[in-house]
Amino acid sequence: EVQLVESGGGLVKPGGSLRLSCAASGFTFSSYTMTWVRQAPGRGLEWVSSITATSSNIFYADSVKRRFRISRDNAKNSLLLQMSSLSAEDTAVYYCHVRGVDGFDLWGRGTLVTVSS
Amino acid sequence: DIVMTQSPLSLSVTPGEPASISCRSSQSLLDSDVGNTYVDWYLQKPGQSPQLLIYALSYRASGVPDRFSGSGSGTDFTLKISRVEAEDVGVYYCMQRIEFPLTFGGGTKVEIK
């Protein structure tokens, strides 16, 4: 089955860290740029970070730069997001997303990250 | 960063009637080298992840009904629903992917009268 499954969300205290994972299946993971998109409660979609197929290029939103680190393991079909120095503004559902040519577009169900004391 | 501005904020539509959502970008999304305009449209139904409707300005994604269409050029784009159905409720987003950071419009909430 073609799918993305996120995990690793939860409740974390301000200033804390969390690592999100995304397991991909059903497509050639190693061929695609992978992306994290987040959505704060009741808010719109916000792009967080993207990593190209071979990890040669990595991009971050200014709001997470120097605090988040995206990586991937093509052998394990896995995408990671290491988040640190978390604040309430990082509270959101984090989606794993892949986009290819000709309209190939896949989202996970998301994992909720709540930053609260 | 490219700013994507959507209007209206919300829309209440009678089933069977048409609907139109606008999106404007702060700079051109046309890649003249390849001739593509890198604007996409997504629908996020209540409680679900976003789903792609239209990509590269006017191409319907797989499985998307032909009542959805995308048009526009350069910096002004429109998503049209020819006859709204009950299943079309949710929030619609435009998104640019011509350059990083990728940016989304603020969303248009569509509800049924």
Brief overview:
The complex is a heterodimer of chains A (117) and B (113). By secondary structure, chain A is mostly beta strands.
Report on this model:
By secondary structure, chain A is an all-beta fold. Chain A is built from no helices and eleven strands. In chain A, strands 2, 4, 5, 6, 9, 10 and 11 form a seven-stranded mixed sheet that branches. In chain A, strands 1-3-8-7 form a four-stranded antiparallel sheet, with no helix packed on it. Chain A is globular and about 40 Å long. The mean pLDDT of chain A is 97. Chain B is mainly β and 113 residues long. Chain B is built from no helices and 13 strands. The model of chain B has no long low-confidence stretch (mean pLDDT 97). Classes of the chains: A mainly beta (117), B mainly beta (113). The A-B interface holds A 35, 44-47, 50, 59, 61-62, 95, 99, 103, 105, 107-110 and B 42, 44, 49-52, 55, 59-62, 91, 93, 95, 97, 100-107.
What is the strand content of chain A? over 45%
Number of helices of chain A: 0
The number of distinct helices of chain B, counting runs of at least 4 residues, comes to: 0
Number of strands of chain A: 11
Distance between the termini of chain A: 39 Å
Strand share of the residues of chain B?
over 45%
In round numbers, the mean pLDDT of chain B is 97
* Radius of gyration over C-alpha positions of chain A, nearest whole angstrom: 14 Å
The outline of chain B comes out as globular
Structural class of chain B: mainly beta
Structural class of chain A: mainly beta
Query: What's the Cα radius of gyration of chain B?
Result: 13 Å
Residue runs with pLDDT of under 50 for 5 or more positions of chain B = none
What is the straight-line distance between the termini of chain B? 37 Å
Can you summarize the main beta sheet of chain B? 7 strands, mixed
The total strand number of chain B stands at: 13
User: Order of SSEs of chain B, N→C?
Assistant: EEEEEEEEEEEEE
Helix percent band of chain B: under 10%
